[in-house]
Amino acid sequence: MSDPKPTEGPKPAEGPKPTEGPKPPNGVNPDKDLGAQNLPGQRLDHGEVIGVRRGMFGPNNGGDTTGYGRLVRTVRLPGEATRPYGGWFDEVADELEGALEEQGLLPENAIEKTVVDRGELTFHIAREHLPRVARTLRDDPALRFELCTGVSGVHLPGDKGRELHAVYHLRSITHNRLIRLEVSAPDADPHVPSIVDVYPTNDWHERETYDFFGLIFDGHPALTRIMMPDDWQGFPQRKDYPLGGIPVEYKGARIPAPDQRRSYS
Amino acid sequence: MSTPNGTANGTTPNGTANDSGAPAGARETTEGTVYTVTGGDWAEIADAAKRADDERIVVNMGPQHPSTHGVLRLILEIDGETVTEARCGIGYLHTGIEKNLEFRNWTQGTTFVTRMDYLTPFFNETAYCLGVERLLGIEEQVPDRASVIRVMLMELNRISSHLVAIATGGMELGATTIMIYGFRDREMVLDIFELITGLRMNHAYVRPGGLAQDLPPGAVDQVREFVKKMRRNLPEYDKLATGNPIFKGRMEGIGHLDLTGCMALGATGPILRSAGLPHDLRKAQPYCGYENYDFDVPTADTCDAYGRFLIRLDEMRQSLRIVEQCLDRLQPGPVMVADKKIAWPAQLALGPDGLGNSLDHIKKIMGTSMEALIHHFKLVTEGFRVPPGQAYVAVESPKGELGVHVVSDGGTRPYRVHFRDPSFTNLQAMAAMCEGGMVADVIVAVASIDPVMGGVDR
Lengths: 265, 458
Description:
The complex is a heterodimer. By secondary structure, chain A is of the alpha+beta class. Chain A has helices spanning 89-102, 107-110, 130-139, 202-213; strands spanning 48-54, 72-77, 111-117, 120-125, 147-155, 164-172, 177-185, 191-193, 216-218, 248-250, 253-255. Chain A contains four helices and eleven strands, in the order ββααββαββββαβββ. A five-stranded mixed beta sheet of chain A has the order 3-4-7-6-5. In chain A, strands 1-2 form a two-stranded antiparallel ribbon. In chain A, β5 (147-155) and β6 form a beta hairpin. Chain B is an alpha+beta fold. Chain B is built from 18 helices and twelve strands. In chain B, the strands form five sheets. In chain B, strands 3-4-5 form a three-stranded antiparallel beta sheet. A three-stranded antiparallel beta sheet of chain B has the order 10-11-12. A two-stranded antiparallel ribbon of chain B has the order 1-2. The longest helix of chain B has 30 residues, at 144-173. Classes of the chains: A alpha+beta, B alpha+beta. At the A-B interface, β1, β2, β5, β6 and α4 of A face α2, α4, α9, β10 and β11 of B.
């Protein structure tokens, strides 16, 4: 494990802005607890809380007799970065904000937050403005992100109100840059506008994300399942969808299916 | 063969076969007459189709068709010999690898991803490991020797993948000699893989932080020998195919996709380069130290299957150049990061029952060091934790941009791994390449895309 301290790895120049996360229900705050910051993968008070991890082992059915049961850790994704982002990131952010303003769209309405982490630039976009932002990124001469490498879904049940994320990676061959757009939708209303008319390559990618995550891309020409059979029930890559599998017998011992095994979390 | 409505085993509504005078079975639907054909007399079907007022014939090619590169289903609407509309049906080889990855630890992930595009295992493994390394923040700590070996294996893999593309593409045209030549040469690459990793496919040799083990004795010599042989063999493809009028007649102008089309459809790799754009991630966004190697990016301006064939041939020559430079660059040293919290504790060794933990290591942990035993046990059963966040890493696979989006929630297992497989994206261009052409040219166009269904469906 690498050094968990936030000095490790590429970081924005100013460091992420601390945000106050909700307190875990049992009153233990791992961020204030002296030893907790030495656990791997901690971001101290920075970042966006997506969940709380308890104990050392995966299943939460009380079978953990290891003595690690009272271990509580908050899971935080990298948080919002502050200017300057460093390198060409500022230039892209300036150009994008300028281009959106020209179209009469307030950048702070469209761009929810900007994250710089591990040398990668991410714009979190309000979902209703995604097509406009994508078109601007493609067409503006100073941006020119000609190539979209598709969309990848992420299901974060702990990120209340924005459980389903759609992540787009855009590549500019002209300027040799890569950025990431992220939009989110709640489980209750899994709608994201389609950007197939901006990037036709996303046709199959959006169908795949719909197939696996149930994200409905409004405006897609034919949003049907692509990998799973047409009459399949459920969305397999959501976190509440089980992996499946059957227990197997090996040398007399019964080994449960992979998602039923005792595992480290 | 059936209509896309999927009535292959259907019966007629009232159970009587030919009540409407149609062959084999037919029923009226809101979409028109659906004929159910299970073997039988083509003349009768042709007659029935002639009697029907619309000329539309929909033919399913695949998923079990020898010319469609695996379980790819092409749904072709044809008018005589002309394809008026072409669509792909995919998903027949979906194995849920991305979901499975979420239930194994980070190191075990390589075992899964190597099976995605099974013709380019080292690219899948390297892309995945680069992603995990970026999440861990150890990109700079990966030893040089590991990077050089990764590059060498990827370039050898590029040769073997292009050989299959050319070989099967030739076979589908009826040029079986090319097929024999291609698989003959690929065999030599697979022999090298077997010597180095122990397996011909599905290696799981590249691991987060480095490699599973160092090169075995004799590997460098065998690779040198291979480069020499391959330099002799490559001109044979030129002699056999490049100037061959029949081959050119089948390939030139077929599967046309220009630069605008490539950009819109996200096509990368030889398809994009056949449209004249020298875009190659090895040059544009170097990884694994590609900036230190001397090689060219071949392009063509024909936008067609022939151009892609020439590019693949040329890329194999460039790969040989890179492999030679790798051999010159190999310096003794570790092949795994020094961080003992990530690096697998034991170096593997060949025992009487195959590859396993080295006996020296077992002696040490069982006999002298309790801490080493605990450490070994924890790392192997629990694995390492990866700080929360996401990363996108792309490598230039033989088919185009292979991107990996890895998300971690700080656990010992991947939270989400998504592969942007070039075959999947490039296959979308099939319709644009085939519509308006002949049925026979569909085969050539699909072969020039070189889709591998293991990668498309994952």
